[in-house]
From TrEMBL:
Name of the protein described by the UniProt record: Shikimate dehydrogenase (NADP(+))
Keyword list, A-Z: Amino-acid biosynthesis, Aromatic amino acid biosynthesis, NADP, Oxidoreductase
Binding site for shikimate: 15-17, 62, 87, 102, 222, 250
GO biological process: amino acid biosynthetic process; aromatic amino acid family biosynthetic process; chorismate biosynthetic process; shikimate metabolic process
Amino acid sequence: MGKLYGLIGHPVGHSMSPIMHNCEFRELGFSDHYQAFDLSPEQLEDGVEAMKMLDVQGFNVTIPHKVAIMPLLDEVEQEALEIGAVNTVYKSGGKFIGTNTDGRGYLMSLLSVIGESSLQEKSILVIGAGGAARAVAVSICRSGVASLTIANRTIEKAEELSSVCSKYAKTDAISLSEAETTLSSFDIVINTTSIGMSPHLNHTPLKLDHMKTGTVLSDLIYNPLETQWLKEGKQRGAVVDNGVSMFVEQGALAFEKWTDVAPNRQRMRRTVLKELG
Ligand code: ATR
C-alpha cells in the first residue's frame, strides 16, 4: 500500500494542493495519496495526534494553523522559526518536524523568472509585513542579498520584520508613500498583501508612477492570475510574475522533502493553471 500525505487547514475545500500532488504521484507511478483534512482550531491538537496514528508521512499546513501548529511538533527548523510559521511537516526518525517551503519556494521561483542564480546585486522592495511577507523576506535575506526594504501600511510591523531579517542583510522599513516616491531605486518589487484579490479587484498596493522600465513586479496573488497592479506594471514596461510560480515551487519543495524525488514542475504548473481555469 502507498504512503499517506496530507493537508490540514480550515477551510481546505478550495485548495489546489491535493490535485497537484496526487497528479504527480500518479504520473510518477507512486501509489501514495495526498488527502485534505479540514480541522478547526479546536481540533488541531487532536488532529496532529491523529496524523501520527494514521501514519501520515508528511503534510502541508495552511490557514489558520501555520503558527499554532509549531508547539505541537517534535521539532521546528531554524528558518521556519525565524519566519514564525510552518507550512510543511515531514517525518524523520518517527518525529514530526516542521519546515517552511513558502519563502524558499518564492525565492526559487523568483530566480527562475529573472534567470539568475542569486539576488546579491538586486535592490528589493517587499510590500506588506504579514505572514506571507515574513516567509518571503526571511528566505530572501537568508539567501544572501545586500539589502532589502520592507514597506507596510503599519510601519511598526515593517520595522519588526526588518529587525528579524537584519541578522542576514541590511534592511530598512518605510511607509507605502515613501515606497511610491522612491520606486525607481528598486529592481524587484514584491506584493505580499491581499490587495488586488476579490472583492477589491481594482485596488493596487502601490502606485507605479515612479517605476523604472524593466523592474520585476511580482505579485503573490494567483487568483486572479493577473491583478490590476500587474496589468498596470506590464503597460509601463515591467517584467511581471504572478503567484502561481510560488505556489507550485512551495509544493514541489514539500514533495521533494517527503519523497526524495523531484516532481515535474512544468506539469504541476499546468495542473494548477487548469484548476484556476
Ligand atoms: P498574510 O498572511 O496573507 O500575509 P496578514 O498576515 O493578515 O496576511 O497580512 C496582511 C498584510 O497586508 C499586512 O502587511 C497588511 O498591512 P497592515 O500590517 O498595515 O495591516 C496588508 N494589508 C491588507 N490590507 C491592506 C490595505 N487595504 N492597505 C494596505 N495594506 C493592507
